[in-house]
Amino acid sequence: MKNLVSAADLSREQAIAILDTALEMGEVNERDIKKLPTLRGKTVVNLFFEDSTRTRISFEVAAKRLSADVINFSAKGSSVSKGESLKDTAQTLEAIGADAVVIRHSASGAAHTLANSGWIKGSIINAGDGTHEHPTQALLDAFTLRSAYHSDPRGKGLDGMSIAIVGDVAHSRVARSNLILLKLLGAKVFLVGPSTLIPAALAQAADGFSFSLDQAIQTFRLDAVMMLRVQLERMSAGFFPSEREYARIWGLNTQRLQELGENTLVLHPGPMNRGLEIDAASADSKNSLILKQVANGVSVRMAVLYHLLAGGAEND
Ligand code: NCD
Fold this sequence. Notes:
Bound molecules: N-carbamoyl-L-aspartate
Order of helices and strands: HEHEHEHEHEHEHEHEHHEHH
Largest sheet: 5 strands, parallel
């Protein structure tokens, strides 16, 4: 494996191998000295054309814990804002000697372009391209679900789990990558949200869909709900009547959490619109794995960097 652009780049075996490596990285992250020499001498560039807090920090910490040199290149204030093209930027990074480029870009397909252009010889990792994909987020979500579901998760998938992805599916790269990966790992995946925000093609690829969260809670016997951020910045039209209506019909709240049952797991990729897709009580409830997701993000990204750059066992 050289690049990670889409969750579809992974076989089930490769995905499980990355999740298993992430378990080991999690043990390193519990130690006093959270550092391995694995990527000493390698250079990882975080190339972020879109704002990001947790994903960029997570990749930075992950690369540093593996002893790589890390360059954070955010497009704002760089030559990119002076009109430099992706190609020019890529060629500069190649000349500098980047072994991996972690790219986030507002254009769907940007990571794919970089991976197939030949401009960069190193690995390309997609950290979110437009509304398309965000495969490391899906891996950390799968990791978090697997660890909550199995007492000994090593070697296992998500077979037997039912998971609903709820809300603004249309604009969500997190939803697209999760739909692919969670199904690959054996889970049943349901899409739930307003009809205007559930694309027909994705609904068909899922194991079921519903335009009513209450109905979904009653029919799908869910083990987990993954609430999506309403991506107001990507909406040019009115996809729902008002924020108050959205919260009332599709938001997770204490009452719905009770109906879901006490063992239902709650995920959200962050950043949350508290009071819109999820209320504060649900976000901070004992069911919530939201902070675990952030912590697991570091272990999972260490595992991805390890498999791409240090040649994991299944490298080909
Ligand atoms: C997601 C993203 O940027 O795609 N967040 C993240 O990576 N932590 C989800 C979102 O922005 O809603």
